[in-house]
């Protein structure tokens, strides 16, 4: 679960915003599950503005862990509760950090986890520095890391005025997902796949992140962001990097992140003329959404990689709300087999495909073709990671454990973040026209034009379908 050469683990975890939405849905559940697995070995200090006692917070935490569907064992939760202290206060008030310093005490190795709005990252880190709380500490921050390239650089400069880069952990929960991690092993430990994984075999790559729900209840959060900033600049470009990078030189986290940054540097900046933006009908009626909003709830784009392995292979990315299914996948479409005289109508056969489903029910499928009674038929060789490999840790379990133990491989580095913003910056500067689409459809019809001359968009290999759709 960790890589070699990491710094010493933390013995104190401070969670800023521990009564917030992320903690309610993810963090508390992950900490409880780490406790249940015997992997939580630190104090937990929760910090938030709510005026609660530690006993009040512990009772609230138990309810919130149970509300996620997690069965709560009394003995396990009792062990977890014994680790917890709660401090309430204003994160912009120096007095809070004086109390926090006294609570932590001298000589401890601390992980400060900022589950706060990005506008507070700088002020909190500066207050931590002024209070002498960063010398033997790491700081984890949740995405977004800026809203464009200029703001990402400004945020990095502000944080680096207090922290070294090796003290910063930028959290993108996609990097904690089992299939994203499994990609490294599938690609490089299996000669059967490694030999197909380049421009000689692959004709096109499709990366899809489809959600079958809208932004109900999140209008005020989502409207200033949109699909490009919300999931493409971070999640999908991290997946693209994992799909296309060269093998790391060693087991160190920096070797892995070097390879990801290297391939992102080779990605051409996106061309607005090769992108499609959409907004589902009814979006502007959502509470919190600005009247006449120009925010996209759907984005599709084409990217190119200027390196020897991937030149001339188009990468098509799409993400959207209120689409027909919930599914995130990577689909490598291989080049067609040559037409040979002894094969019946080989030009009618579908190209082979390698499909990695990231969510839900992670798995991998190899789509072949076989001869049916009258024509070619698809033949699918598929595996479910949970069924065949066992239940993996949840993403936030991995991320919290990695942050506490000093495993940086699950976190993005400054150069990777800035390269991702460089790639999408033209789409922010000169966005494509906003096109309407009906909820429950695959976005604007114009998205089909984006793949003209290449295999059409494929419906995702949905959980329970048993095979990728053609």
Automatic annotation (TrEMBL):
Transmembrane segments: none
Associated pathway: Carbohydrate degradation; pentose phosphate pathway; D-ribulose 5-phosphate from D-glucose 6-phosphate (oxidative stage): step 1/3
Catalytic reactions of this protein: D-glucose 6-phosphate + NADP(+) = 6-phospho-D-glucono-1,5-lactone + NADPH + H(+)
GO biological process terms, semicolon-separated: glucose metabolic process; pentose-phosphate shunt, oxidative branch
Ligand binding (NADP(+)): 49, 90-91, 143
An MF annotation (GO) of this entry: glucose-6-phosphate dehydrogenase activity
Domain (Glucose-6-phosphate dehydrogenase C-terminal) ranges: 185-453
Domain Glucose-6-phosphate dehydrogenase NAD-binding, first and last residues per copy: 14-180
Positions that bind substrate: 173, 177, 211, 230, 321
E.C. no: 1.1.1.49
Keyword Amino-acid biosynthesis attributed: no
Swiss-Prot/TrEMBL keywords: Carbohydrate metabolism, Glucose metabolism, NADP, Oxidoreductase
One annotated Gene Ontology cellular component of this protein: cytosol
PROSITE patterns, per database record: G6P_DEHYDROGENASE
Top-level taxon of the source organism: Bacteria
Active-site residue list: 235
Family: Belongs to the glucose-6-phosphate dehydrogenase family.
Family matches, as HAMAP family: G6PD
Function of the protein: Catalyzes the oxidation of glucose 6-phosphate to 6-phosphogluconolactone.
Name assigned to this protein: Glucose-6-phosphate 1-dehydrogenase
Source organism of this protein record: Actinacidiphila reveromycinica
């Amino acid at each position: 679960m960790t890589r070699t050469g990491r710094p010493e683990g933390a013995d104190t975890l401070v969670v800023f915003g521990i009564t917030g939405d992320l903690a309610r849905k993810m963090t508390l559940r992950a900490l409880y599950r780490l406790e249940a697995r015997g992997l939580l070995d630190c104090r937990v200090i929760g910090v938030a503005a709510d005026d609660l006692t530690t006993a009040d917070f512990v009772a609230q935490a138990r309810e919130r862990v149970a509300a996620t569907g997690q069965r709560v064992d009394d003995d396990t939760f009792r062990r977890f509760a014994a680790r917890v202290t709660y401090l309430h206060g204003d994160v912009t008030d120096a007095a809070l950090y004086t109390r926090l310093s006294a609570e932590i005490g001298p000589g401890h190795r601390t992980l400060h986890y900022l589950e706060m709005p990005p506008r507070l990252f700088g002020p909190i880190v500066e207050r931590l520095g002024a209070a002498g709380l960063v010398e033997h500490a790491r700081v984890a921050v949740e995405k977004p890391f800026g809203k464009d390239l200029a703001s990402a650089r400004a945020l990095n400069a502000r944080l680096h005025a207090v922290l070294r880069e090796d003290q910063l952990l930028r959290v993108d929960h996609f990097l904690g997902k089992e299939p994203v991690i499994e990609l490294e092993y599938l690609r490089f430990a299996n000669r059967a796949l490694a030999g197909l994984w380049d421009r000689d075999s692959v004709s096109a790559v499709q990366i899809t992140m489809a959600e079958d729900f809208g932004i109900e209840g999140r209008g005020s959060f989502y409207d200033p962001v949109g699909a490009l900033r919300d999931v493409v600049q971070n999640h999908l470009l991290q997946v693209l990097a994992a799909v296309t990078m060269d093998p790391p030189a060693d087991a160190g986290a920096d070797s892995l992140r070097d390879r990801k940054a290297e391939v992102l540097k080779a990605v051409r900046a996106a061309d607005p003329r090769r992108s499609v933006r959409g907004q589902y009908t009814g979006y502007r009626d959502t509470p919190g959404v600005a009247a006449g909003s120009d925010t996209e709830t759907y984005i599709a784009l084409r990217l190119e990689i200027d390196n020897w392995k991937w030149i001339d292979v188009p990468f098509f990315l799409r993400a959207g709300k209120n689409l027909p299914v919930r599914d995130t996948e990577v689909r490598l479409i291989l080049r067609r087999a040559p037409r040979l005289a002894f094969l019946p109508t080989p030009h009618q056969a579908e190209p082979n495909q390698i499909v990695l489903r990231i969510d839900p029910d992670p798995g991998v499928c190899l789509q072949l073709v076989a001869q049916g009674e009258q024509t070619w038929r698809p033949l699918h060789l598929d595996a479910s990671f949970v069924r065949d490999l066992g239940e993996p840790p949840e993403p936030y379990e991995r991320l919290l454990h990695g942050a506490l133990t000093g495993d940086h491989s699950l976190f993005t580095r400054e150069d990777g973040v800035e390269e991702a913003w460089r790639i999408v910056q033209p789409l922010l500067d000169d966005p494509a026209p906003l096109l309407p689409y009906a909820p429950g459809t695959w976005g604007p019809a114009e998205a089909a034009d984006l793949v003209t001359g290449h295999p059409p968009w494929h419906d995702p290999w949905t959980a329970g379908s048993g095979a990728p759709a053609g």
